[in-house]
Specification:
The complex is a heterodimer. By secondary structure, chain A is mainly alpha-helical. Chain A has seven helices and one strand; from the N terminus they run H-H-H-E-H-H-H-H. In chain A, helix 4 packs antiparallel against helix 5 and helix 6 packs antiparallel against helix 7. Chain B is elongated, with a radius of gyration of 14 Å. Chain B is an alpha+beta fold. In chain B, about 60% of the residues lie in helices and about 20% in strands. Chain B has a three-stranded antiparallel beta sheet. Classes of the chains: A mainly alpha, B alpha+beta. The interface between A and B is medium-sized, with 28 and 31 residues. Strand 1 of chain A pairs antiparallel with strand 1 of chain B, so a sheet runs across the interface.
Chain lengths: ~190, ~100
Amino acid sequence: MPMKLSPQDAATALAEVDLARTAMRHVIREHRGHYYLWIWGATWIAMPLTAYFAGDGAVRYFALICLPGILASVAVSLVQRRQISSPDSFRPFGVMAGILLFAVIFPFVLHGRPDPRAYYAYACLACMQAYVVMGLWVDRYLLWLGLFVAAMILVGFFLLPGIFWLWMALFAGGPLVLTGFYIRHCWR
Amino acid sequence: MPELDEIIHQPVRLRIMAALGSLSPREQVDFAFLKDKLELTDGNLGAHLRALEDAGSIAGEKTFVARRPKTFVAASTAGRKAFAGHVAALQAIIKTS
């Protein structure tokens, strides 16, 4: 015999559904990737600022500056995997490994000792290529972020060599941090 | 005409399906985490998950994370369909009243 419900009972049930969906939406919002944007935005601000104040030679310390970012990313991923797991959970690590190889190691393999500014600009552009690709496949905001930051990198490199490092801190690292806040607070 | 699902309609199971249905089809949620989010006890959540699993609405996966046993649960395709049908039936009842 089919179930019968009064409109009141149906409304109560739908209210329960909404409550549970809202609770889960908060959880999903915490898994959107803004922590990674904050971590790497801060790293991308710290690296060029170090070079701005200490000179181009500070590039040799960039790997050291990246280390807390890598550790923090691993920690975020582990915590989030304990809550919501999916076969795609390892994607951020795959992306990071790809960036490390193509953006950080290959320029050294090909050039030996590349020019610090060209090297940093290239590494950032390679990261933005990953953002553009992920934006096309996964989430559109990454596409626009990747294109915007890539344009800013080129502007800083070709048009503003005098303030290149400061420019990179503001317009390469800054947008990552701000996008993190946008995702965290404005997405529903 | 969408139909009500008696298994899913139970209030706790309705909340479980609403929560699991909010995730993408490839995602699964940790048992303890779901318990906290829905403010249920271990026994209560476990019993309702068993009922949903028996009905084919969810699938559970036992695994080890940092050497500790963990259970992840996810809504099945059939469960998502049944839940969507149930919600549509609830909306239809309100609409026709």
